[in-house]
Amino acid sequence: MTSTTFAPTPVDGTALRARDLTLSYDGRRVVEHLDLDVPAGRITVVVGPNGCGKSTLLRGLARLLRPTEGSVHLASDGAHDDVWSLRPKGFARHVALLPQSPPVPEGITVVDLVGRGRHPHRKLVRRWSRADDEAVTRAMRATGTIELAERPVDELSGGQRQRVWIALTLAQETDVVLLDEPTTYLDLAHQVDVLDLLRDLNRSRGTTVVMVLHDLNLAARYADHVVALRDGRLVGSGAPADLVDEEFVAQVFGLRSRVITDPVTGSPLVVPTSTHHQSGATS
Amino acid sequence: MTADVLTPTGACADPRAVAAEEPADLARVVRARRRPTRRVRLVIATLAVAAVAAVLVRVLLGDYVVALTDLLPILRGEALPDAPGASFIVMEAKVPRALLGLLAGLAFGAAGAMFQTTLRNPLASPDIIGISVGASAAAVIALTFLDAQGLWLPAAALVGAVAVGLLMHAVGRGTTLAGQRMVLVGIGVAALLSSVIQFVMTRTSIQDAQAALVWLTGSLARATWPVIGMLSVAVLVLAPLLAVCARWMRLAELGDDLSATLGAPAGRARLGLVVAVALAAVATSATGPIAFVAFLAGPIARRLCGGRPSLWAAALIGAVVVVLSDFAGDYLIPDVNLPVGVVTGALGAPLMLAVVVTAGRAGKA
Ligand SMILES: Nc1ncnc2c1ncn2[C@@H]1O[C@H](COP(=O)(O)OP(=O)(O)O)[C@@H](O)[C@H]1O
Ligand SMILES: [Mg+2]
């Protein structure tokens, strides 16, 4: 973020690295022995069936859930630090996470909410600075939310609200942004809208983006790198064109399909033929 | 629909080059940020004036009216030749009651707002989730079984409130649904302790039961200088802590995950709850539970501040309400002295309905 050129950061690096990562809730393992490299300056999309541990993985990467085994390392200034060895605010200046549907504080306005993203940059006693205002303005311009500045967030539409949440995450000015299903509850037009916005940010700022998406076709369209999970284990990872084929879809989702080439984007396009349930004609 | 579809291209040309090029946007952001802040400041200033006015009303008016010009000499300890009893009445009855009401109101108001905002639950105020009942149960037990007198009574109440607070802290630790769990457990504990109080009351002598009952309604009758001293030390120590916690509280509003992502250390929001428990406990130990003050100060403050919660506004509302209710309880009905808890209880119920109804109308219930 200190660089003044628009070139994406070197793509050969790894922004986040998980090794033998095991994450559990109350002793129950949800993510098991996972090795993962998140390429820096790229868009990584995590896919997998419901409940397979995608959100949990994101929480593990974002230092919200302490691994029961293994570790997560963050690349910063050429070194790889265990994320749990960093101070919370220091880590928060490098990695931001937008959870799936965070609660909206009562009566809060758009500017106020976006401004919360500045917390990791503020000292305990220092007042709100001009740099904070500028960061908020940048984030709001990038997400097209300036026009909403004075509006209460709870009066916004779903699409507007999602843009405001993303603006909060951008105001944090991190080099890695994790987003948990940023397109749920949005109609298709707004889904594409949000994903275009995230890709633009990735291309212009070089921000490393990791997001969970439900729609495999949107994942294939926007991802540089796809990570597929099933039952908390890594099933496959790689560029969408190399990874997504009929066998992959069957393996991850248990879905029979044909995979063709999207005539618009050239990325793989999954066309379900039937699910294995329907072959028994029970439903 | 069209309003929130944004141009897919150009909406985020280059985020870093923006601020310098678009001073109009920056100005708009700054203006939008300041507007609610200004309103909250105005509300707080007005409420501060109102609190001082309420204290003056309590001290100067009533059965025994004191002229404002006499007050300063009395406070300085000078004897008034034409009114020899004035000094005693003012210094031993009127001023202590006003101060105790002020301090307890501040503490209840701030504690209630802190709970409600941090736990994101309007029911989460110390009088609903067992803190006040914990204090009451301990005080009643101390009163009837241990014959507690003087400062031992507030001490016992403090122990009871803190014990309930610790229990809730233990229940909430390390879970993602800490807030909801704490509220539910608190309501359960409150019900349990209420029946403990009932049981003790049936087992004791009429005199003890009556003393306990006075304590249970909440009154400023025990306004002695040692109690006031204890409460003011507590408020002075805890208020700056609360100011620090207010910042974490504003993060806690965003939910556990997002606030942790923004660098709030895990469990930090609950530190604010510890401060709130301490405030509520000390205040309850001094006055007994004063109905509805902690519960309603937060929502009223939020209404005045245009929808945003404000700890300081809530604290000042608590102070104004307690001082004025105590005054009304003393003088509204001739020859009847109603404890302040009875007055706030009578005021609070309709007010609560009003808050719920208007909140529903605004679509924010
Ligand atoms: N806070 C939690 N406490 C206990 N179990 C959880 C929690 N969050 C998720 N789980 C469990 O972990 C598993 C994976 O959940 P999650 O990571 O949310 O899946 P996904 O995001 O892929 O749908 C599920 O079985 C879910 O029930
Ligand atoms: Mg999920």
What is this structure, in a nutshell?
Chain A is of the alpha/beta class and 283 residues long. In chain A, 29% of the residues lie in helices and 29% in strands. Chain A has helices at 54-61, 88-92, 110-115, 130-142, 158-171, 188-205, 216-222, 240-243, 246-253, and strands at 14-25, 28-39, 43-47, 69-76, 79-82, 95-98, 176-180, 208-212, 225-230, 233-238, 255-261, 268-275.
* Helix content percent band of chain B: over 70%
Helix-strand makeup class of chain B: mainly alpha
Biggest interface, chains and residue tallies: A-B, 68 and 45 residues
Task: Tell me the count of domains of chain B.
Answer: 1
User: Can you tell me the residue ranges of chain A where pLDDT is under 50 for at least 5 consecutive residues?
Assistant: 1-11, 279-283
Topology record:
The complex is a heterodimer of chains A (283) and B (365).
Chain A: E1 14-25, E2 28-39, E3 43-47, H1 54-61, E4 69-76, E5 79-82, H2 88-92, E6 95-98, H3 110-115, H4 130-142, H5 158-171, E7 176-180, H6 188-205, E8 208-212, H7 216-222, E9 225-230, E10 233-238, H8 240-243, H9 246-253, E11 255-261, E12 268-275
Parallel strand pairs in A: 3-8, 3-9, 6-7, 7-8
Antiparallel strand pairs in A: 1-2, 1-4, 4-5, 9-10, 11-12
Helix pairs in contact in A: 4-5
Chain B: H1 18-21, H2 23-60, H3 68-75, H4 86-118, H5 131-145, H6 152-172, H7 178-203, H8 206-217, H9 225-252, H10 256-261, H11 268-287, H12 293-304, H13 311-331, H14 340-361
Bound molecules: adenosine-5'-diphosphate (ADP) and magnesium ion.
